[in-house]
Amino acid sequence: MEYVQVEERLVSVDELLDADEVFCTGTAVVVSPVGSVTYLGNRVSYGEGIGAVSQQLYSVLTRLQMGITEDVMNWTVELR
């Protein structure tokens, strides 16, 4: 996977409705695609299943969690 520049910030509703792909992340869910968003009666669908970016992020994160990929950022902790 190519490196992706990450920016943590608030996202406007207009940006959300205009997005090609939307997903949520978390420790247990890893990466979960959002199927659609409805705002003021306007429903926007983001396709079926997981998108390309979501799939890449999911693969990278789960490979780190399973120890398949070297964790050069020290994100994981070995349980004893």
UniProtKB/TrEMBL annotation:
Its cofactor is pyridoxal 5'-phosphate. One of its GO terms (biological process) is branched-chain amino acid metabolic process. GO terms for cellular component: chloroplast. One of its GO terms (molecular function) is branched-chain-amino-acid transaminase activity. SUPFAM superfamilies: D-aminoacid aminotransferase-like PLP-dependent enzymes (SSF56752). Keywords: Pyridoxal phosphate. This is Branched-chain amino acid aminotransferase. It comes from Arachis hypogaea (Peanut).
